[in-house]
C-alpha cells in the first residue's frame, strides 16, 4: 500500500552518504523533500540531480531539506554525490523499503522480460511528518523548475499531481 497525500509518513531510518542515517523523526520541524530516481550516472538522473543541486539554496530558503533516493548501494551513492558535488545527502534504498512505502515501483517489460522499475517521483513531507505533496512519474529535465514554481506560487499543496 502506497502513501497518499494527507497520510502521516511512518518513521524510518535509512543509510545515506557521509556515513549518515536519515531518521525521519529527527527531522521534525523541517519540511523534507524526497526525490526518487532510477539509477546513478544515467543521463536523465544526472540532469535531474544536477537541477536539485543547482537549486538547493532555493529549497533551503523555504525550510526544505532535500534528499535523493535510489536503489543504488551506498558506495555508488557516495561516488555519484562526489561526482556531482551535491550539497545534500543521497539515500541508499537497496532493500526497496522506501520505494515500497511511497509506491514508486512498477513492473514493466524491457527486452522481452519483466523488470522491477522505479518511477521517477518526488514527495514533500511537512514539519509534522505528514505527506503534503506528491509528484509522480515526472520529467527529469523540467521537474525541479516546475516544482519550485508551484512551491513559490503557493498552489494547493494537498493535491497530487
What can you see in these coordinates?
This protein is α/β, with parallel strands linked by helices and 161 residues long. Helices cover 29% and strands 30% of the residues. It has 5 helices and 9 strands. It has helices at 43-54, 56-61, 74-84, 97-102, 143-153, and strands at 13-16, 20-23, 31-36, 64-70, 89-92, 105-110, 113-118, 121-125, 131-136. Strands 5-4-3-8-9 form a 5-stranded mixed β-sheet. A hairpin with a 2-residue loop joins β6 (105-110) and β7. The protein is globular, with a radius of gyration of 15 Å. The two termini are 18 Å apart. The relative contact order is 0.23.
State the end-to-end distance: 18 Å
Briefly note the structural class of the backbone.
Answer: alpha/beta
Read across the widest sheet, the strand sequence of neighbours is: 5-4-3-8-9
Proportion of beta-strand residues: 25-35%
Overall, the morphology is globular
Helix content: 25-40%
SSE order, one letter for each helix or strand: EEEHHEHEHEEEEH
Low-confidence stretches: 156-161
Number of H- or I-type helical stretches: 5
Radius of gyration: 15 Å
Biggest sheet details: 5 strands, mixed
| DSSP summary, beta strand count | 9
Give the integer mean of the pLDDT values: 92
Amino acid at each position: 500500500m502506497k502513501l497518499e497525500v494527507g497520510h502521516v509518513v511512518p518513521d524510518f531510518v535509512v543509510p545515506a552518504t557521509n556515513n549518515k542515517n536519515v531518521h525521519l523523526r529527527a527531522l521534525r520541524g523541517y519540511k523534507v523533500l524526497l526525490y526518487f530516481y532510477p539509477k546513478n550516472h544515467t543521463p536523465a538522473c544526472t540532469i535531474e540531480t544536477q537541477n536539485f543541486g543547482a537549486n538547493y539554496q532555493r529549497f533551503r530558503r523555504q525550510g526544505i531539506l532535500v534528499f535523493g533516493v535510489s536503489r543504488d548501494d551506498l558506495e555508488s551513492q557516495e561516488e555519484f554525490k562526489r561526482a556531482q558535488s551535491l550539497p545534500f545527502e543521497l539515500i541508499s534504498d537497496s532493500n526497496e523499503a522506501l520505494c515500497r512505502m511511497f509506491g514508486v515501483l512498477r513492473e514493466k517489460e524491457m527486452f522481452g522480460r519483466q523488470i522491477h522499475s522505479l518511477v521517477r517521483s518526488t514527495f514533500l513531507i511537512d514539519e509534522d511528518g505528514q505527506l503534503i505533496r506528491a509528484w509522480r512519474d515526472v520529467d527529469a529535465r523540467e521537474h525541479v523548475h516546475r516544482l519550485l514554481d508551484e512551491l513559490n506560487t503557493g498552489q494547493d499543496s494537498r493535491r497530487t499531481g
